[in-house]
Amino acid sequence: MTAHPGDVPSVFGPYLTRWTLAPDGSPFATHSSDLLPVRRSDGTPAMLKIPREAEERRGSFLMTWWRGDGAARVLAHDGDALLLERATGRLSLSAMVREGRDDEATRILCAVAARLHAPRPHPRPDLAPLDHWFRQLAPAAARYGGILAKADVLARHLLTSQRDIVPLHGDIHHDNVLDFGPRGWLAIDPKGLVGERTFDFANILRDPEDQPDFVVENVGRRSHVLAQAAGVERTRLLQWVLAFAGLSAAWILEDGMTPDLDLAVAERAAAELALP
Fold first, then answer.
1. Is the pLDDT of residue 6 over 90?
2. Catalytic residues, which ones?
3. Coil vs helix vs strand at 150
4. How much is the pLDDT for 47?
5. Which stretch of DSSP H or E encloses residue 145?
6. Cα dist. 8→3, 87, 88, 268 in Å?
């Protein structure tokens, strides 16, 4: 359903005029951005995104840097707003997992990540280093202890021994890689990080979030499939999984909620690593 002009928040107005766009659906919001489906003057479907946080603005520059290779194509960008090609395919990686095709979904995610991590000849944008990304883990570990303390110890080790440094999406999961029809599977919504390549695969093992029992029960099995598909060391991958699950738990605790999924994934990763 196309939004009535009066129903479109004013934040989109200047860009609708500047880029000659017409609303083509209802506006919606994530925790960090405002979005509106639109059509360009030639009828092409697109998505207008207005970031509200620094990480999303960094991600916009990274999307532009990828130039549509492995990620949605940027149609226009002015620093405060991003106009992206819109995913119109009907397939879903989360649905694949529900249908028993988890290994296939994992391999698709890894193939997309490989394209994102590939070197480019043009200078990369300013990105956030992983040690900055992990800055909230240590205070949470000191406060809560337990598995968060184990995650913090591992994170410190990993961050000081990084290898294979590349620009990172930072939030690869089953709902951030979409079906773009003839263009195939492409990524959206990067965080704009730089660091060890293996880190970018850790989030896959704690997703899809709407299937928590499956995720927790299959950390071990999925880590074998993921490590092989991504071409990374399984032990190192599980270490990043534990570290990142701890960081995600720290964020959730800071918001006053209970991070059940992340704590369970962290414990499973620790068990796979045979940590005391």
1. no
2. 171
3. helix
4. 98
5. none
6. 7, 21, 22, 45
pLDDT (0 to 100) of residue 1: 46
Give the β-pairing of 177-179 and 128-129.
unpaired
Predicted local distance difference test score (pLDDT) of residue 57? 86
Q: Are 60 and 72 in contact (CB under 8 A)?
A: no
What average pLDDT score do residues 200-211 get?
97
**Given the DSSP bridges, would you call strands 45-51 and 33-39 parallel, antiparallel or unpaired?**
antiparallel
Query: Quick one: average pLDDT of 62-75?
Result: 97
d(CA 130, CA 230): 19
Residue 54: the pLDDT is 82
How many residues are recorded in the chain?
A: 276
Q: Are 139 and 164 in contact (CB under 8 A)?
A: no
Beta strands in 185-264 (DSSP E): 185-187, 193-196
Token match 């990686």: residue?
93
> Residue written as tokens 């000191």?
142
Domains and CATH numbers, the chain: 5-85 (3.30.200.20), 93-272 (3.90.1200.10)
- Non-local (6+) Cβ contacts of 120 within 8 A are 65, 66, 67
Count of C-beta atoms within a 10 Å radius of residue 138: 17
Strand partners, 54: none
CA dist., res. 218 & res. 33, Å (int): 32
Residue type, 263: L
